[in-house]
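Q: Hi! First time doing this. I have a protein sequence and I read that you can turn it into a structure. Is that right? Here it is:
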Amino acid sequence: MPVSQAFLPFALPDIGEAEIAEVVDTLRSGWITTGPKAKRFEDDFSAFLGTPALHSLAVNSATAGLHLALEACGIGPGDEVITTTHTFTATAEVVRYLGADVKLVDIDPATLCIDPNEVERAITRKTRAVIPVHYGGLAADMAAILDIARRHGLRVIEDAAHALPATSAGRLIGTLDSDATVFSFYANKTITTGEGGMIVTRDAKLAARMRTMRLHGMSRDAFDRFTAKVPSWYYEIVAPGFKYNLTDIAAAIGIHQLKRAEVYRRQREAVAAAYTDGLAGMPLLAPPQAPAGETHSWHLYVPRLREGAAIGRDMLIERLFADGIGCSVHYIPLHLQPYWRDRYGLAPEQFPHSQRAFERMLSLPIYPRMTGADVDRVLRSLRAALG
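A: Yes, that's right. Below is the predicted 3D structure, encoded as structure tokens:
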């Protein structure tokens, strides 16, 4: 079937003249790898969270950030880390990088976030940490998860790839009492640096370890050495580290994206509200709202087909694409992925809520540059596709 209009993408970054000018300034400065812009972005990020005492570390991806945080927490062979099956593989694969094992658990069917009751049931004598995922930009039940972690002596590393800016108990994600929180700045996220991420922690020792491991396990990073006023060529390799630093080119984009993070959130929220109003009368369940007094970042807008819908999810996506509407599915759960399924002997019936959600969900376009006409077009296409 031919596309009737110009294709409406699932996601589109909003890059303005300020970002472009900052990148050009970086290129002209001669310092294009990790340097003053990356440091400025880190400082700005801590200030944005309203807690300057936080340690913010810019990295080249959220995956890198999760890996660094787990390594700094001492996770290794023989350990288990609990996370949700309803996430992208990066959340879990970093555990395997360190030789530890992953324990996948089901979601709360109302929020689609990790179910704290399932977390507690999954704890064994080998459990060392839990990675909650703030799905779609809605905060997981962090009060319950942190309570469980305290009682069982577990580390908590938040996968906040979707959650800038979102809140839990009135506090911004990134300022809670977890060991570390990791944000993503991938191209479709709520702010972007193209590729990139940020780790935040209150723990100075964790920050020091992650800073060292971020760049080859060097005792001093390149920026410190190359900007010193006296000869400073000497360094020591204190551990077999990684290559996870964020470049100044990427940080230059992030500096200005961060300034508009709240504006972007309000724009996403407006799109989400228009969708929710427009779904009335359709056989679709709107995604959960944030509890009263809390903030949802609306990284994703994920409705689910209700019982009795005339067509299935896959056919619905095909019809939307044929009408020029980009959409996706978040996520194909890990228990269905060959590596995780086969390594741990997983089956759909072990994760009934994630499985049922997956079979009925789709992600609609949502990004700050969407217009009211764009939203209306998506809704018209949905109505037509659903009959």
